[in-house]
Amino acid sequence: MAGHQRISTANDQRENGRQQVFEAIRQAGRIARIDIARETQVSPATVTAITSELLSAGLIEEITPEGDRTGAKRGRPRVALKVRGAAHLIAGIKISDRSATVILVDFEGQTVGEYDHELPGPVMSPEEMVSLVMRALGGACNAAGRDISEVSGVGLGIAGLIDATRNFVHWSPSLDQRNVELGRMLSDAMPVPFYMDNDANLVAKAEQLFGEARNVSDFIVITIEQGVGMGIVIDGRIYRGERGCGAEFGHTKVQLDGALCRCGQRGCLEAYVGDYALLREANIRGSAQPEDDLSALYARAKAGDAMARSIFDRAGRMFAMGLANVINIFDPSLVILSGEQMTFDFLYGSDVLERVKSSVVQVDAPLPEIRVHKWGDLMWAKGAAACAMEGVSELTIRNLGADAA
Amino acid sequence: MAGHQRISTANDQRENGRQQVFEAIRQAGRIARIDIARETQVSPATVTAITSELLSAGLIEEITPEGDRTGAKRGRPRVALKVRGAAHLIAGIKISDRSATVILVDFEGQTVGEYDHELPGPVMSPEEMVSLVMRALGGACNAAGRDISEVSGVGLGIAGLIDATRNFVHWSPSLDQRNVELGRMLSDAMPVPFYMDNDANLVAKAEQLFGEARNVSDFIVITIEQGVGMGIVIDGRIYRGERGCGAEFGHTKVQLDGALCRCGQRGCLEAYVGDYALLREANIRGSAQPEDDLSALYARAKAGDAMARSIFDRAGRMFAMGLANVINIFDPSLVILSGEQMTFDFLYGSDVLERVKSSVVQVDAPLPEIRVHKWGDLMWAKGAAACAMEGVSELTIRNLGADAA
DNA sequence: ATTATTTTTTTCAAAGATCAAATTAAATGA
DNA sequence: TCATTTAATTTGATCTTTGAAAAAAATAAT
Known about the structure:
Strand order of the largest sheet of chain A: 6-5-4-7-10
CATH class of the largest domain in chain A: Alpha Beta
Shape of chain A: globular
Helix content of chain A: 40-55%
CATH architecture of the largest domain in chain A: 2-Layer Sandwich
Oligomer: homodimer
């Protein structure tokens, strides 16, 4: 298996063509046929053939030209194509410890509705999770004035060790059991294609479809939420590893026999930069008043409190070390750091990034670009929707071939 | 670029077919057409067409059936195909600090000749390197009774930061300059296709073509020579990163502000497990007689010397930590550890491997297989030959298409 | 107002590729 | 010697892509 393309029957070939043309249109936003041909290296004749298929399937649409044609060159004007938003309605759901956030987007990625469903508690049984997801989904549809039957794909994001290829949960902080076939359970409860993945991969997918990595085929996303996550994109696809639980950045070891992690092992990065780790430090270090609020601790550090500052300092140094290791291993062209406000201040600050750069193997070539991307609250849900969107696109286009035959 | 196959013109498609069929034949060693069809999912008709092309190009050959057909089923007997060794002669060259090892192999991978060329010194100028390689190549051909003009591809392996896609040397311990266009220089000096890569990728390629990873599409190779190297194979292809210098396992940090590495940074894995690091430790730790022979130090450790033992012990713990990090990130199905005799005893021992396993994120799924593969001296050179072989195969098959047109 | 020019898109016929089905080849069993 | 079985090849049909030609739709020029 030395990495050659699979041989393709005529039908497969046309399907590939459709996928590729559709992807080009989505990526560009709006693009004329001639530019699709240029970009995909496919002849204009084929582009015409494929786009007419996609048009009659309702997946894309022509943009009616605006009156404003000042400064136009002569010649037949190009007509731009775009994804037809109305083609599909997609839902993305993100489970955090406090609530289930739902976002509804159309096939163009435009937000159609948002919805927030509070959780009774942070941990629940698989069955409760299923009913919760269904209720949240129903609530979101209601709020947006849509019927649940209009939704053609659902994506779910939860924290933990998720095997997305098998829709299997090895472990999640939101579930009271390990090894749950959550995907099967939810697929059964749902009348539409269902996809799930862990936090970091969601963000990676969102960055790839809508965000900073729109034209990048190899990049890495680091996320800090409760834990520390990583999404790896290689050759345009999310890398998941054999058992689907690779990219465990938060549990790479940064200190031999180091601090105890909630995973039970010692020296994990998460045990130095996670919320609970910082608070633990603060309390151990004999502060007079026991601390249980991270933002208060952070405020004290900013105010100059030496003890508090040293806690964040060490976290930053450990994080820099871990990130440098990832860069040394992958030599990516782009690293995207993503997380909440405070994270940005103490983990994504310029001093930490400087430290990362000085810990990367030095060559006379530009260092990988490290971009910091602050998202709104809906980032995670939008990522979940992005996953579902990709799945629905592929399915639809595949079926399109089957229909024709 | 969401990872779809490139659309393929008719000619491309046939080329893919040829590549795939040829690869199947090489992988199997000897295989009948009907089995190729089964394995590659291509119809027998197409297999017949493609194999007849490859046959008439002289790249493969039919195996004349042996007399022994006892226990044969009835029906027309299958005739096996194999790669035709005589089709090409390939050279692999490995530069170490003491010598240039050359191996000549035929297109089947069978060794045709070996040759060792001693170096005047471990470090040289790019020009000296070129002339050295050419002399070593000439010497090998001479010794094997072949003419240098018969060689149809040359692969070179050297240590350091190599950008194999651009045949560029960022840095190598064998060269007295950084940033050398060694590939261009050698291509100019050589009348045949030339390929180069760093140590670890050579081994990965050798494992993939001839070794333990023959049917595995995702695996990781760790090598210990002077430094510590890693080769990453994802989806059948070597992953190289953006600047071609990823997989720098030896310079991932295992200790914050730790031991000084020869790369100038602190806390690199190499600074704990490399030869020089171990000797440095031995001398610092106030042993009576200064130590400069690693095997002597190792002997003392085995004999029970507590100081010596603690040195190797720490190296083992650090190595385990680094390896566990790699596994946590990649979740590969297979890890191959490769190196010299002593390495096996103190880094690849069962206690270290146990430690690795206990530092990997725990899920209820089988751990990645860690296989230890001890190679002979010629491993590196054979890997270089494997790289060249892959290149020559692809080129030949591509040109085959151009000839027909 | 009409014609020429330019650029995009579509149509059409040619060139290949894959495959299912039929045919041929080459063995064993009866 | 003939039936049976399995492998390999041939053949005709179907489907794709593409280059070239034609059509379409605008602006520029006369």
